[in-house]
Structures
1.
Amino acid sequence: MIVRTRFAPSPTGFLHIGGARTALFSWAFAKKHGGTFILRIEDTDVARSTPEAVQAILDGMQWLGLDYDEGPFYQMQRMDRYKEVIRKMLQEGSAYYCYCSKEELDALRENQMQQGLKPRYDGRWRPEEGKTLPEPPQDIPPVIRFKNPKDGHVSWNDLVKGEISIANQELDDLIIARADGTPTYNFCVVVDDWEMGITQVIRGDDHVNNTPRQINMLKALGATIPQYAHLSMILGGDGQKLSKRHGAVSVMQYDEDGYLPEAVLNYLARLGWSHGDDEIFSKQQFCEWFDLDHITPSAAQFNTDKLNWLNAHYIKQASPETLAREMKKRLAKLHVAVSAQPDLFAVIDLYKERANTLNELAASIAYFYQKPVIDQAAAEKHLTADIKPVIAKLADLLGAVDWQAEAIHHAINEVVTQYQLKFPKVAMPLRVMLTGIAQSPSIDQVMALLGRDEVLTRINQA
RNA sequence: GUCCCCAUCGUCUAGAGGCCUAGGACACCUCCCUUUCACGGAGGCGACCGGGGUUCGAAUCCCCGUGGGGACGCCA
């Protein structure tokens, strides 16, 4: 059987971390099995769906490199097909008109809740053998409901959670078409998964409760039932549910914040899935290794520290060209223009092992291209009066030195010896004067890159 | 309320009845490297939710608690 998976977001907001992982797993499963990955936009909620959100989802997937083989399909463009299926179901008797008003249903629900019952439709318009239906009211446009089986159980072997079984008694006759005739989510999903030949439905576990209803409809339509894999949710770093109000951000925000897509992908892959003790793997490796058997059924908490660690790793691995491009872009945002000297590639090389994010990296090298902001605390600690003459002497020496890290180091050593100091006693004030702060790579290497003129200027100005 | 799901270090996880004195990774701590801070290297701290079963043997299987989460829309 040829594997066909799909990612089916509703375009009501950006692609967030949970959606991204669902997409990633669906995508990887298809890749692993040489199958087809389909993108389907579930935009039947006309009021909340926007073209901007569609674009945001497309952007997010592109940034992560999750390419789809078919689609994007838009459900709103498949209306005719849905209506045709509904017509057929009405004919065959697996669906029926219901003339309850919203108010009537609200009252019913409230009543059931009060009695401690599970709120559900009581089937008052459900046609039954030997049952006389009320006369349809003229003023209420009917909805269409699916005639769910009354007895027995719906069971499936969830590829993540194992055997799940739900009594049909727990299920009511859900609405498959609104009063205005537009079909609803659960129905469209069924038709699409069926007609698009989806073999594995990989989605968030908030859909577990929809699955038995969908299976029943699939059965009523005589369709093949796909396999289901329900992924548990991703919690925020504080263990709380992610929501628009609380911590849920677009995957594009990670780009904004200086994360490489490889890092985000690798992080997401390991969140809820594992391959023994492996922590770092390429996208290709992931596709080869990925399986549904090693997905945890329990919810996972997002951990920025670990993402940072992975990001630091991928920054070290990144090509010089990638990093240079990113640095130009990110320095520009800091209003720093990169000049020809010091050489950006050399600067990056000196700093890339020290940053967790691209933004950190950009901020840390900014002083090469603009005057540093001197940290006051560092200045007070290191730029002491007694060191001034030593630095002055060093400046003298530097004027004539061959401008190489080694020679510069030699010059510093000379004054260190002359004044009988420890090396850091001189290196630290230099750091503060040249970079603004007390932490930097080897000061001689920094100086070599900064250039003689700039070094002397900064020393004089400090 | 009803139904469904989940439960191993702080976090992500390994674990398919004996390989478990429970492994790895992040974080944290110590030491080494060192020109400061990082990087890197070596160590350390740290968990099977509770109670019953089943079994010669349970982190693993079953039951009951407890805790957490999800669903119960003319949203998706």
2.
Amino acid sequence: MSETFPTKPEVSRPTMIDVARRAGVGLGTVSRVVNGGHGVRDETAQRVRAAIDELGFQRNEVARALRPGKKSTSLALVLGDLTNPFYATIAKSSLEIAGQSGFAVVLGSVDEDPEGEKRAIQELVSRQVAGLMIVPDQGDHAFLEGAGVPVVFVDRPATGIDADIVMVDNEGGGRLATEHLLAQGHERIAILLAPSYYTIGRRLRGFRRAHRAAGIDVDESLVIQLPEGNAEAAEKATREVMLRPDPPTAIFASTNFLTEGVLRALGELGSQLKSEPAVVGFDDFRLADMLPTPVTVVASDIAELGRSAARLLLDRASGADTRPPQRIVLPCGLIERGSGERPPDSAAKRKAR
Amino acid sequence: MSETFPTKPEVSRPTMIDVARRAGVGLGTVSRVVNGGHGVRDETAQRVRAAIDELGFQRNEVARALRPGKKSTSLALVLGDLTNPFYATIAKSSLEIAGQSGFAVVLGSVDEDPEGEKRAIQELVSRQVAGLMIVPDQGDHAFLEGAGVPVVFVDRPATGIDADIVMVDNEGGGRLATEHLLAQGHERIAILLAPSYYTIGRRLRGFRRAHRAAGIDVDESLVIQLPEGNAEAAEKATREVMLRPDPPTAIFASTNFLTEGVLRALGELGSQLKSEPAVVGFDDFRLADMLPTPVTVVASDIAELGRSAARLLLDRASGADTRPPQRIVLPCGLIERGSGERPPDSAAKRKAR
DNA sequence: CTGTTAGCGCCTTCAG
DNA sequence: CTGAAGGCGCTAACAG
């Protein structure tokens, strides 16, 4: 029990040969029984199954995957910070789908740097995964071209390779959020942008389109590019912009973490402000409805993002799907909770006229 | 480019033999170069490396792991809902440590049921992972005894097997939270308990100990066992207990999700209540400091939980650590934010006397 | 120093 | 219906 085995460190698991000997049959027979048991006499199969149980035999998936053609039964998932509920949701939902088909999901260690991503992906490929789901970083992904493994990009496309991509309607969402604010009468809307990922660019595009459609000019000093994508950066930027002589009457935060930073800044600024700006965030988040002013957001079904990606990848891996690269776009909806329905205050309005 | 290859679905990656032929050397030499290149003439090694680059060769980890003894270079992580920031944090931090040693982390699909966990674990074992990190469900885990793979349990121990375990000081945390409330003068403290996991039991124990130490009896009607561990169950229970003729003046929520439910209920009850109870939660959560009343919690370093588990498992897997099963317990601290510092209201006090 | 050889555990022909 | 044999990509042991 509490004894150690310095010389026999590993308890080797039984193999098919052990089972075959135990059951007094040939190796091939055992294999057949294990894989569906087709074409084996019932009595023989019984004996084999008994031996399997007695020995506690478990098929070695590694050896199995070694056969040519036969890919392994695991998918790789490469993404950033699992601590971000957005990514966690993708991980969970894709894992769910993969699991239903008996696939495991391997998470590559993903540091922040773009080189780290490449290394992680290659390590995963060397593990013979049947397919890759990648939330890509900004670097070039052309190196995946010859990997010989199906790839599905999630949340944003990658450059240098034409592969399946599952994402949300970023531009539509950006437009939706902006239109909503414009409809309340806001004419000075600030937008906070995380470092230029593809998604953020599209959201900004929606922002501009909505303005154009409404015949309102975008004040470029309110298009705020943040140096980092975290709450702190957004907090700082919000404080600065709100203390300007001519502050915006509404803020569109392009990311869940940014929304948090905006709210934090507004909370601290509090009474220093003549009036509180309306706020709309992109992506919903837990507790958004419980904050002092419940937060209005533009959101999409992130879990479905992960599910779609996994399903698509599974079909590619099995060879069931041979269509040219697909592009799945999930819609965004508006969830009104209060913060986005604040009208522009009268003082600001007076100034604008 | 946009052509499909129905008959040749896989681009087979180059193998060591290809490299050997290309470099005009033997197979063994290539292997030696790939594994550190010890004992190979420099010039030869150069040629081999060149061939590797030209062919884009990558060692097949699967084949490598087939050798006896040589375990694969991936760890398994089995846990519940990745959507719970608590688990997500464990996943992230353990992944970080594993990655530093060149290990990947395989996530088994974990349904809710206890049988699903066993199946998931066995699938992972069949994939020849080098070790298992498990946040165990309630069932018996004796079946892991003969798995021949090191196991580290995370957050709570499992029954039926004596293995390493990394967890937080649940009892200490429960006691800390309770002492804090008692110190404010609360004598009627309700505790909300998620379905009886090990951790919850310990937290309750701390709750009772703190009472005993203070010479105050626990009102058993305030020890509330919830049917489920989600926010909704806590919300419902909170509403009920607060509407009793003799409601508690403080609430200890034993879980992050439960805390959320408590706050939600209190928010809705609002003015119906004669006075708002103090609230302390177990485990910190994002935005806890931004709620209408910032939430006081007892918390520990969850990321360290994951890191310790991964480090320990890595040492076990490599054989570097052969000590008897370890038990690592991380401390809990109190984070005062407001909700836990509300004194019992005067009306309630009068009643109690 | 370097090439050759024998498996690792399994699946897939191919005979019997 | 069943047993035997070959090979997947790699490493380790053994000759040269």
